[in-house]
Specification:
elongated; two-stranded antiparallel ribbon; single chain; about 210 residues; mainly alpha
Amino acid sequence: MRKNKILLIAKIAIFTALSTVLYFIRFPLPPFPSFLEVQFSNLPVIIGGFIMGPIEGVAIVLLRTIIVLPFSTTQYVGELADLLIGVFVVLTVSFIYKKVNTKKGGVLSLGIGIIVWTLSAIFSNRVILLPYYMKVYGLSADNFIDILKVIPWVKIFKTIDSSNYMRVYIFACVIPFNIVVSTLVSIITFIVYKKVSNVFHKFEEKSEEKEGL
């Protein structure tokens, strides 16, 4: 029992470390606004949730958030948004996969995870991120509209003004951006999950053999 707890803590620590490293590796995705940055810190979170379960997946997100908070450049607002997205996503995908532990179950959970990720991002941007950035950088509605107009497909909206710029931002930026990122994370998860899982299973088997000796 003690050894199992130690192994569990070790696995959580490994996935937390990977998630933390990936959190700091971020880059913009033109033509989206530069403050929407791609980062793959939820990749180890989801894989860890698949291997260990929903609670352990949430623990990875919480620990990662605690570690990165001292380095925040957004007065903890960005970290809060990432925390919310990470928790909702890992709870969803790992719970579904735990109930339907097959390849089809994995695909189903990742597909629903993309939807949950996007909905969480809509909430985070609408309620937390955009109000923060507009306040900190002193952006008016007109300033933000100018930023949106750089995006080619914004032209499908006939008019952008102070009454609808938030809606345009959600549909033209937040939704497509997060669908792209979450889909990439899901594809990579689907490709590497079994390999990563097998490594941990072999390690646990060897540990059990040594314990038996």
